[in-house]
Each structure stands twice: as structure tokens, then as C-alpha cells.
Amino acid sequence: MATIQEKLSVLANTLEKSDDLTEAQLLDEKKKNTVIDFKMVTFSLAGKDYAIDIMKVKEIVKAGHFTYVPNALPFVLGVYNLRGDIIPIIDLRLFFNSPVPAHDDDYQENLLFVAVGEQTFGVVVDNIDKVVGIQKSTIQPPHPLFGDINIKYIYGVAEYENNLYVLLDIDRIFGVRTPEEERELAETAQAQMKMRQAEYVQAESQESGSEKKEEAPLPSPQEEKALDLSFISDSLRTLKKFSVTPVTKEWTEKRYAEWLKERGNANTQLQSEADADQFLAPFYSKCTGTWWTEDLADSVASALPANSAKNIVVWNPGCGKGYESYSLACILKRKYPDAKIKVYGHDVDLLSISNAPLLNLSDEASISWYQPYTVRTAGGDYTFNKDIKDSVLFEYHDCVNTNSLPPVDIIFARDVLAFLPEASQGTLLSEFGEKVKGNGVIIVGENEAIAIPGWTKKSAGNVAVYSK
Q1: In this structure, are residues 260 and 227 in contact, taking their beta carbons and an 8 Å threshold?
Q2: Quick one: what percent of the chain has pLDDT higher than 90?
Q3: What's the pTM value of the predicted model, to 2 decimals?
Q4: What pLDDT is attached to residue 213?
Q5: What CA–CA distance (Å, rounded) separates 287 from 237?
């Protein structure tokens, strides 16, 4: 029969084991109860660990032999046929200026097919690791020390099994605003408008003075108009990056008079991006962001000067999806049939500029004035012939920064200046004046007014042309 001391010893050992077991069980339970609400695909670039939200990844494959696209951006490797869909292939290493290992022509690249809005892109990385799940709340904001990649492209930093992963923001890389950013812009515009109204009311109160018995006079119609225009200017800058400066002031004042009639005195302010879009709808030049009508093509052709040079160089900043650049190339081929044409299409919208070399014509456009410059693809679509495609070079480029363009014969920049800050407008206009040859022309938006010493304006249909 066991003594009391033996029983106590056994009990102590049991409790000790029980405590150890409880601690282990608690750790297991902690892992089991961790809510995994975010999954990411991890991969490497230049030996460093990165990740992408799995909801953005449509497929992971190995592939090679991409179809080359003439005049594409350096980081666009070409296009790939994914079960009938033609997908642009972006080398993320080249985009971030990382080294790319040498390999033979038969090498199969590691590809992540990612969804950006309604578009799909193939993204080339060094190695694809695995899918991991974490708590979204554990994602830390990016730190400026991540110098390899612009911080605006980083969503955050996540830790998993003692490894730190830089979580990339695919939407920002390709220049797409998220719904949250859209809402934030609208809320910021409303907050700024309310703040300006409060400042005005406060200024009115202070001016009247607390000891004055007589009420302060009501603002004159001119003062009310100036105040409303100030509110609208702030809202347009916040919601659409539209700047009310000497370039756009005349149009904005005219549009405000129309807006006042449409909306009435009590409903003139821009409460949302939809309001801003409606206000700006008449601003845009004819056929902006789409295929050109024949009458616009004729107007542009008639606005171009006679030029017997063997080389015609055109700068098309803000080229967007490529409609303007290709349309210009066709017009220039018609206007200067014996010249070698080079159109430099620049834009900071990576999504648009990457897709521009792949642009096909609509059925309607393919039988219009574009027809002499088109060919039909094996898939039945219409695209531009080799001569036109070779004459257009699309580049991911900020037009405000100094670039190495040669002297140009034509600058075609419709509706570009209006969406730049006033200081940037001045910089770009100075660039325009320096880069255009003596017999060259500058074409801006129908509702943009520019002032460059020695340059005067003339109009040709819907085209605003400036020349020396």
C-alpha cells in the first residue's frame, strides 16, 4: 500500500505532465483558432521574397516562346495565347530594374496570370514558391527602406514562418484606382468643399464684427460666382486632377454658366466623381479615347503644315490606349507619303500603354478611312499593317520630366495640359517651345488655351493649332 508521500509524488508528476500537456494543447488550439482571412501567392525576384493577393491570380503556368510585339515597352516580352485569349506578358524583373538571368531560347518562364480590372496580364517572376494563409490584420504597412521598389507599388509586408514577404499591389502597378480610393477621393472633395464653405461663413462673421448692430451685406453675384467657381475648382482637382488655370479658366467659367442653368443655384457643387464627369463631359476634344471620324481626320490633315523633310517626328504625350497615335500615323502617311514617320506615344498609364501595341480596330473602323492601313489577322480581327505599327513607339514615360526626344515636327497633346498641376503645365509648355522645329506645329485640346512666346493660334475645324 502506497504511502502518503508516494501518492503526493505521483500526483505532482501527474500535475506537471498535465501542465506540460495543457501548454502544448494551448499552442495547438491557438494555431487552430487563428483566423486565416488572407491568402497570397509567394515568389522571388532577384533573390528577395514577394507575394500577391491570391484573389488577383487567375492561373500559374510555365511558358515560353512569346510572340514579339514591335515597338513594345522594354518590359513587355510579347503576347501569349492562353486558350484563345491573347495576353500581354510583362517581365516584373525588368519593370523593377532587377537583373534577369541568362537562359536559352527554350527556357520556360514562371508566369502568374493576374487580373487587373477586366484585363488579364502574364507576369514573369524568377521562382514561384507556394500559397500561404495569414491573418490580414498582421500585414504591416510598407517602410520607405524598401528601396528596390517604389513604395507606392507595395501594399504591405507580411511575415510567415520567419520569412518576410513584400506584398505587391498589382492594381497600383498597372495604374488602376481601387473602389476604396474612388470613395476616398469623393469624401475628400466633399470635406474640402464643406471646409471652404465654413471658412467663408467664418470670414463673413468676423468681418461683420460682434459689436456691429447692422448685418453684414450679402455677397454680390460676382462674389458668389467666384466662390462657387473656387469650390468647383477644388472638387475638379481632387476628383479628376483637372486644374483650373489660365489654360482652362475661360472654358471653366463658360461651363459654369451652363452648369448653373442645368442644376440651379442650390445644386451647383460637385458631390461625387459622377458629378465631376458630368461637368467635364463637354470639355474633351472630339473622338477622345476612340477611333476618329473621317471629318476629324481631314481637319487634322489640313492643320498640318507642308513639309518636304525625309523624316517626320511626332510627340504624342498622353497617348492613352493608342487610338490617337495610330490615327496620327495613318494621317501622316497620307499627308507625307514619301517621308519616314515616327510617332512617340508617351503615357503614365501602364495598363493602357502595355495594351496599345495590341490594339485591334472595331468592325466599323476597319471599313472607314482607316481601311488602306489595315490588315486582317488569322483570327479574323483587323489590325494595322506593319508600316503603321513600325512607325509608332509606345513608351511608359512621364511627359513632364526631361526626355531624350529629338527635335519634333508636330506635338499632338489634346486634353493633356488640363490634367496637370499649374507648375507642370508651365514646364511642359516650355518643353513644347524648345522641342518643336521652326516650321512645326503644336496641337492641343479644343478647350485648352496656351501661351508660348512667339506662337499664335489658328483653328482647323475641331483642331486647335499653334505655330510660330
Answers
A1: no
A2: 33
A3: 0.65
A4: 46
A5: 23
